[in-house]
Amino acid sequence: MRVLYVSPFSQQVSGPDESLLALIRRLRPAAVEPHVVLPADGPPVPRYRAAGAVVHFAPLTILHRGLAVPTIARLPFDLGRGAWTVARIARQVGAELIHTNMEVVLDGALAARALGLPHVLHYRGNTLAEPRAVFAALARLWTGLSARVFCISQATADAIFGAARSEKIEVVYNPIEVAAFAAGAGDPDVAAVRATLGARAGQLLVGTVGRIHPRKDVETFVRAAAAVAAQRPDARFAVVGVAEVPVEEAYFARVRALCAALGVADRICFAGARADMPAVMRALDVFVLPSRHEGFGRVVGEAMAAGRPVVVTDEGALPELIEGDRCGLSAPPTDAAAFADRILRLGGDPALRAALGERGRARAQAFDAAAIASRVAATYRAILNR
Fold first, then answer.
1. What is the pLDDT of residues 84-99, one digit of tens each?
2. Which of 360, 365, 375, 370 lies closest to 318 in space, CA to CA?
């Protein structure tokens, strides 16, 4: 079957792109011919092509909470232009179904409606449904324009679509190549990877991964690091991720200033984007994600697949991933002292680290890419066979 995917980003690091790439790689053997529409050329393009997808470009309209009045006034024109372009591409390639890779674009849904094709929406956003009235209206629009809505966690399904729940809503976790994160022969030397993250043998290495964005709350990670460092002089910390847009660059400057003010600039390694995430995860002693309102938390699933103990925010979908505190530890949002307490607890208890790591590894099987792709392919077939 020929599927046209509409994805809103063309930047270096994007969770929706990582998840779509993992899905496409597994759908190819299931006789899915993938075509991907992006708003512009960028770092994901060669990766999509390497995964077997044909890449196209269209002037997509990206919706977000801070749309200015002039932008809102132009929405009908912009959406019409984007939908027309997506529809033209769909006709050219003979698409049988259009799958929008994130809820912030409507162009794919409108193109599908114009062509009489089935449309699947992948809700990959967070659990912050504010303003409530706006999101209630959007939930009705998203479900009305789609044959199926995939939600990346039960938490997002409940938070975003609770009032508009229908048989169209299906929880499908983000796909992770679980086996790639398990240790095996031929893996990179752990000591060498740790060295690139600023840690020597015997030092406690605590890391976080994600875009350097205010919602990821890297500041809480830095404050927790300072509290841990005061009690564990051997502790080192790594932030793996980049700042690509102005709001992120400004936030990164603020984070660096905080490191200097707290006296931990020499203990925290800003490692940038990494292509060797399985090796990075296996090199950590503790993984931390202080993000707000996560809809899934892909990097948490990856850390669990690598058998790393995790400390996450007790908010959004993260408690769902770790099943309460069965597969990890949690702390209240923005509470650096609580995060530091959990990190120190894990740092001083190797048996607890190992136990949580093993439970997390077992839990990560629920995110396995092969199983997720099989479910998605079955949904495609069911929709097309109606």
1. 999 999 999 999 999 9
2. 360
